[in-house]
Amino acid sequence: MNLRDLVYGLYARRVEGRLDHDQVPKHIGVILDGNRRWAKASGGTTAQGHRAGADKIAEFLGWCAETDVKVVTLWMLSTDNLARPEEELVPLLGIIEDAVRDLAADGRWRVHHVGTLDLLPARTQSVLKEAEQATQDNTGILVNIAVGYGGRQEIADAVRSLLLDHAQKGTTFEELAELVDIDVISEHLYTRGQPDPDLVIRTSGEQRLSGFMLWQSAHSEYYFCEVFWPAFRKVDFLRALRDYAARHRRYGG
């Protein structure tokens, strides 16, 4: 271990020691940004950047487990990303599939896909479904894998699901208009039954949500970190929790 790593380790323990676990967010959403820029800065390929980003996930979930987080949503591939060139998209999907298999094999997490399955290749769909089925009885953190995900698409899918559900029940348009409210729409989101994210973290220095969990993040706190996702450290995570706790204490009831 070099001196820099030692200093960061000591600092991380200091921050962790001062962390109030009663103020830890129960649901954290993460926009895993910066894989390609990290690879470019490191002299590697785009695929190597995505692979390094995928390898960071297990470490990140371990930190979350240590701090009593209950739900984590990882945005790994947006609907816009599906338009990337095939020579980049195909390897990226393979890396995502490997990451999902690894999460399922770990045995601690409950894996749940959020996104539109129909937009994804059959093999990716199969991997996501199998991981969800294999981990449904696990008692650890619920890990939402956002692949083929877009916030606007989610709301559109929720409304479509709501309309189809009530069409099957024979509900008239007038009756449906009376029924529709925030709670009813929430029941048809990809994350139905889950708490909304308390904290949304975006790495790489970009300060925008890009449509991530548009409906659910109405009251979320946001933390924008300059570090690229593959280089995200435990101390960066603890800083995000510390920042969240300070805001929570200041603005809470």
Keywords:
253 residues, alpha/beta, Undecaprenyl pyrophosphate synthetase, 9 helices, 6 strands
Note down, in words, how this protein is organized.
- There is one protein chain.
- The protein has a 6-stranded parallel sheet, sandwiched between helices.
- The protein has 9 helices and 6 strands.
- It is globular, with a radius of gyration of 19 Å.
- It has a single domain, classed as 3-Layer(aba) Sandwich (Undecaprenyl pyrophosphate synthetase), CATH 3.40.1180.10.
- It is 51% helix and 13% strand.
- By secondary structure, it is of the alpha/beta class.
Following the backbone from N to C, one meets helices and strands in this order, namely HEHHEHEHEHHHEEH
* Number of spatially distinct domains: 1
For the termini, the CA-CA separation is: 44 Å
Tell me, what's the shape?
A: globular
- SS summary, helix count: 9
Multimer state:
single chain
- Radius of gyration, in angstroms, nearest whole number: 19 Å
CATH class: Alpha Beta
How many beta-strand segments? 6
Query: What structural category characterises the helix and strand content?
Result: alpha/beta
What share of the residues does DSSP label as strand, in percent? 5-15%
Amount of helix: 40-55%
Q: Low-confidence runs (pLDDT<50, min 5 residues)?
A: none
Sheet with most strands: strand arrangement: 3-4-2-1-5-6
Named CATH architecture: 3-Layer(aba) Sandwich
Q: What is the fold-level CATH name, i.e. the topology?
A: Undecaprenyl pyrophosphate synthetase
Largest sheet: 6 strands, parallel
CATH superfamily: Decaprenyl diphosphate synthase-like
What's the average pLDDT? 92
